[in-house]
Write a structure and sequence with these properties.
mainly alpha; two-stranded parallel ribbon; 4 helices
Length: about 100
């Protein structure tokens, strides 16, 4: 079980550490006026997708998909930029 990021409710779903970290990191790039709404929609979507897959573990790929899908189209560029920065930082860490 885990705590929902946005609602503070206890969930029967388990968010992997990577999914939780990615979700929190990307949401921070959104304007504060949108964050709560996007978080709530994305959490619900991630849990639905995970249940449909017959799992109780939300992985990073599902969290990312749900977050992108829940983000207004005009804000998705911010998330893409954040992902590019994240990938670049990880590549630097590997060197």
């Amino acid at each position: 079980m885990s705590i929902h990021v946005a609602s503070g409710q206890v969930s029967k779903m388990y968010w992997t550490d990577e999914a939780t970290e990615l979700f929190a990191e990307l949401v921070a790039f959104l304007p504060s006026s949108l964050r709560l709404k996007v978080e709530e929609e994305a959490e619900t979507s991630a849990e639905r997708i995970t249940m449909e897959r017959g799992s109780q573990e939300i992985v990073a790929e599902v969290a990312l998909y749900a977050l992108m899908d829940s983000t207004p189209m005009n804000m998705r560029g911010r998330l893409m930029e954040a992902m590019e920065c994240r990938i670049a930082a990880r590549a630097d860490d590997r060197r």
